[in-house]
Each structure stands twice: as structure tokens, then as C-alpha cells.
């Protein structure tokens, strides 16, 4: 596809991920995808590994795993039929990149080793806090993970050292009714432990200086309470079955 035509096709889609499709075309995603990738500490060499990407959306991390040599990559999501959160971006990127990544529209709770297999690496990025029932979901992931689960998630209540989680019954978090929980890092680690993972490592937590600036912005632009916003952030965990 010529660059001009690709620009036109990209412009028709509402993207979440920002990814390079070649010919100077980068998708205009709202997600800071490159910086998120850096925080994940995904191995540079995945040669011969299998990767499951849960909540793949536009597929950036699925395609990146393939680029790093993964022998099998399965991208799953509950893609909408059209519009925001549709599979249009994934399918276009898949075609342009000449990818062999597999795709399956399925709910997390319907995943079983018998249905999709067991994977060396499981990516669970931006999904945990959307689960109404986190523990059953993480137990399902434990059964699918051979080597490592990588979790990137919203966290809350960062002032608490003990395991604790904020509950969002409505649209308290970013106006999104699909966001249910704001666990603190201790709670995430405990959930993973209770789900059967033997070792958990916290890889990343947004530093206070970043959270201060973000909280100030939200207080100014959205009228949110500064202290509540300051207690929130993003974190990354690696969980190992053995």
C-alpha cells in the first residue's frame, strides 16, 4: 500500500496504540505506547517463545513480541463490532506488517489451556482493574502461564503500606464504568500470590514527582481532588509460577 493510501486508511480508525507502520506512518494512538513498552522490561530476545497478549486492542505488544522473535503470539480481546475498541486497527496493522499473530475474540474467563494452550509469556496490560472479580481472573492466568506473567495496571491508595484496594462502583476512575478496582502495589502482589504465583517482582511504580504533576493537572482541568489523584499511578509486576 502506498504511503498516501495508508495515511487515509489510518485516519479512518480511532486508535489506542501508537505504532510505526512504516513509510513514515505512525498511528495516532492516545496511549503512550513506547514509554509503556520500556517500563515492561519485556526481554529483547523472545526467540522460540510463545506469547499470549490479553486485552491486545490494536495489537502493538503482540506485534512487538513477534518482532522480537516469538514463535507463536496469540492476541485476545473482546473487540467491539465497530468504532472505539474495535478490531479495525489490529486488522489493518496485521495486514500492513505482514504479521502471523493469531487473533481470538474471547472473554478472559473462557480461556483454558485446553482451548488455547499454555504460554511462556502472558501479557496482561491495562486489564486488571477492569475485572469485577480479580482473583478468579488471575487464577485463570496462572493456568495459562509457563514462565512469566507481566502485569501493567492502575494502582491507587499509594499511601497505604498494607494491602488495600479502592472500589469504583461507578465512573470514579476516568469516567469509565468498566474500571472497578484501584489496588495498591501490596494488594496486587497479594492477589498474584493468592492466585498461585510463587514469586512476584514489582518492576515499576510511577515516581512521586510524576504523580504530583499529573494530580495538579487533574485538579486544575477536571476539578478532581489533588490528594486522591496523587495517590494513584501505574505499576508493572512480573509474576513467576515457580
Describe this structure in words.
The protein is of the alpha/beta class and 242 residues long. The chain has one domain (3-16, 46-240): 3-Layer(aba) Sandwich (Rossmann fold), CATH 3.40.50. Helices cover 32% and strands 24% of the residues. The protein has 9 helices and 11 strands. A hairpin with a 2-residue loop joins strand 1 and strand 2. The longest helix is centred in the last third of the chain and has 14 residues, at 208-221.
Give the topology.
Elements: H1 3-11, E1 20-22, E2 25-26, H2 33-40, E3 50-54, H3 60-67, E4 72-77, H4 88-96, E5 102-105, H5 113-116, E6 119-125, H6 134-144, E7 145-155, E8 165-167, E9 181-183, H7 185-194, E10 199-205, H8 208-221, H9 226-230, E11 233-240
Parallel strand pairs: 3-4, 3-6, 4-5, 6-7
Antiparallel strand pairs: 1-2, 7-11, 8-9, 10-11
Amino acid at each position: 500500500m502506498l504511503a498516501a493510501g495508508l495515511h487515509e486508511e489510518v485516519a479512518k480508525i480511532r486508535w489506542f496504540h501508537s505504532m510505526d507502520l512504516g513509510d513514515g506512518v505512525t498511528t495516532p494512538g492516545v496511549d503512550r505506547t513506547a514509554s509503556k513498552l520500556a517500563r515492561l522490561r519485556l526481554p529483547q530476545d523472545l526467540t522460540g517463545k510463545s506469547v499470549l497478549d490479553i486485552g491486545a486492542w490494536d495489537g502493538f505488544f503482540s506485534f512487538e513480541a513477534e518482532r522480537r522473535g516469538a514463535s507463536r503470539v496469540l492476541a485476545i480481546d473482546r473487540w467491539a463490532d465497530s468504532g472505539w475498541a474495535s478490531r479495525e486497527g489490529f486488522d489493518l496493522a496485521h495486514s500492513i506488517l505482514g504479521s502471523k499473530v493469531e487473533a481470538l475474540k474471547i472473554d478472559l474467563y473462557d480461556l483454558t489451556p485446553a482451548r488455547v494452550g499454555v504460554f511462556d509469556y502472558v501479557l496482561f496490560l491495562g486489564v486488571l482493574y477492569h475485572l469485577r472479580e480479580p482473583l478468579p481472573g488471575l487464577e485463570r492466568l496462572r493456568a495459562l502461564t509457563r514462565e512469566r506473567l507481566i502485569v501493567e495496571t492502575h494502582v491507587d491508595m499509594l499511601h497505604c503500606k498494607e494491602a488495600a484496594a479502592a472500589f469504583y462502583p461507578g465512573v470514579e476512575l476516568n469516567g469509565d464504568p468498566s474500571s472497578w478496582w484501584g489496588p495498591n502495589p501490596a494488594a496486587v502482589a497479594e492477589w498474584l500470590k493468592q492466585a498461585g504465583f510463587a514469586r512476584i517482582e514489582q518492576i515499576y511504580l510511577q515516581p512521586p514527582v510524576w504523580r504530583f504533576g499529573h494530580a495538579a493537572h487533574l485538579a486544575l482541568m477536571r476539578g478532581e481532588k489533588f490528594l486522591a489523584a496523587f495517590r494513584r499511578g501505574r505499576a508493572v509486576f512480573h509474576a513467576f509460577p515457580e
